[in-house]
Amino acid sequence: MPRLTASLALAGMCLLAAGASLHARIIEVPDHQRTIQNAYDVSRPGDTILVHPGEYTCAITIDHDLTLAGEYLLTGDTSTVEETILRNEGSPIIQIGGVLVNFYLRGLSLRNARAGLIPAQNGQGAGTIEISQCCFDTLSQ
User: Are 110 and 137 in contact (CB under 8 A)?
Assistant: First the structure.
């Protein structure tokens, strides 16, 4: 019984430490929202926008904590990275606009844009930007 009580207490402390992530949601594109912008518009800090394979034109400014990911996030299948394409001819695809924003980009291809990702340049410091299993291709200045 003491072992069970200790395990429950530890689990409770972990849940308290997780805080805001307890209410994080997964918003799927195009299943729940038709576009990445629509998904972002309904997202809250800590949410994940999960983008299914396809080609999407988007230009979004991130101003709250968010994960933007392809199916790779769930499956670990790297072939989905090349099949999940974000593009925006002549403009940046993703801009970080908020101060101390934590942004995670996982398993997506960013193509044919002036820039794939532009971090905040407001001199107010930065949060975390993590990029993994992404492909940046045909980006111009």
Answer: yes
Closest Cα partner for 98 from 133, 60, 72, 49?
60
In which residue are the tokens 């193509």 written? 111
Tokens representing residue 37 in the block: 């912008």
Amino acid at 30: P
DSSP H helices in 63-122: 72-75, 79-83
DSSP label of 14: H
pLDDT at 25: 96
Q: Which residues contact 52 (CB under 8 A, 6 or more apart)?
A: 28, 29, 30, 31, 70, 71, 84
Whole-structure pTM over 0.90, yes or no?
A: no
* Phi, psi for 126 (deg, rounded to 5): -140, 155
CB 51 within 8 A of CB 108: yes
Distance CA 101, CA 94 (A): 13
